Amino acid sequence: MNKLVKFSGMLSVGLLLAACQDTASTETGSEAEATEESSQASAVPSEITVKGVAEHYHTGDEVELTAVPDVETDLSNWQWYIKEDEASDWEAVAGLTSDVFSREATINGLQVKAELLDADEAAIAESEPVEVVIDDHGANDELGRRIYNGFFYNDEVQDRTLADWEGEWQSIYPYLENGDLDIIFEDKASHSDTMNAEEYKEYYRKGYVTDVDHMDIKDDSFTFYYEDGSEMTAEYAYDGYEILNYERGNRGVRFIFSKSGGSEDMPQYIQFSDHGIAPQDATHFHIYWGDDNQELLEEVTNWPTYYPKDWDTDAIVRDMFAH
């Protein structure tokens, strides 16, 4: 009997000790998690990255940037700085104390950077500057607007080389099909008495449709990349330009290149139209290709349109709104 009592007592003590150990272990784990969470919450960033800068802006666009620290932190007091040119000093932007910078695009080459401040308003991390590039494609002055809208004199037209269109380009037809450009068509409809948004979309669908998903232009060569994964390359030589008169009373210029070598399946002629009439780097273009040059010159309903391959939806929509 005594042995049974002693055994029961020892068992109770053992269970009590085990329970205490479990409780201690749980408390220790909770304290560790709390310490870890506290450590994460009070982490001090060492690097700041300014995100959201576009390839370029048009005068009057909204520039919206975001400062992103390399680790999560409770610190939320920011100071933004701007510098108009290399000869200027950095100037603190009053009133912007969050991680978002917002300003109208008015100065080409404006540099922007952000600092994260501690509770004493001392800087603990600073970003590298980003540059705001404004490119109105010549359309922000009287001469540029006149030419862009198709009103120019013959002697203003100059020969151009493929260097004006060199780069990697993507078709915007998939953006139309995905609905990404609906906001453009809705805006056009709001300013029109003759077409609604769906009619605009159908008009541009006929214009943009193509099976060449993207293309590369380098030196004197074109490479077409098709939707089915196939690709073809050929070389082209400049073959002059043609001035076209449109029914609306304005005019356009087609810059023509003829095939000089490469794949037999590539078109014999390629024509560019980008609203420009003299040498300048294109930011987008309409392009026509085929084996009959005169027939291409008469084509005015299908004009596959290409933008830089690294532009995202926001950049493309921003550019389209400017035109």
Overview of the molecule:
By secondary structure, the chain is of the alpha+beta class. The chain is 27% helix and 31% strand. It contains 7 helices and 16 strands. The strands form 3 sheets. Strands 9-10-11-12-13-14-15-16 form an 8-stranded antiparallel β-barrel. Strands 3, 4, 6, 7 and 8 form a 5-stranded antiparallel sheet that branches. A 3-stranded antiparallel sheet has the order 1-2-5, with no helix packed on it. The chain is elongated, with a radius of gyration of 31 Å.
Question: Notable features of this structure?
Answer:
eight-stranded antiparallel beta barrel, alpha+beta, 16 strands, single chain, five-stranded antiparallel beta sheet
User: What is the tally of beta strands?
Assistant: 16
Measured distance between first and last alpha carbons: 100 Å
- Strand residue content: 25-35%
What class do helices, strands and sheet pairing give?
A: alpha+beta
Uncertain segments are 1-27
Going across the major beta sheet, what is the strand order?
9-10-11-12-13-14-15-16
Instruction: Please give the largest β-sheet.
Output: 8 strands, antiparallel, barrel
What is the average of the pLDDT values? 87
Summarize the amount of helix as a percent range: 25-40%
Shape: elongated
Number of helices: 7
Order of helices and strands: HEEEEEEEEHEHHHEEEEEEHEH
How large, in whole angstroms, is the Cα Rg?
Answer: 31 Å
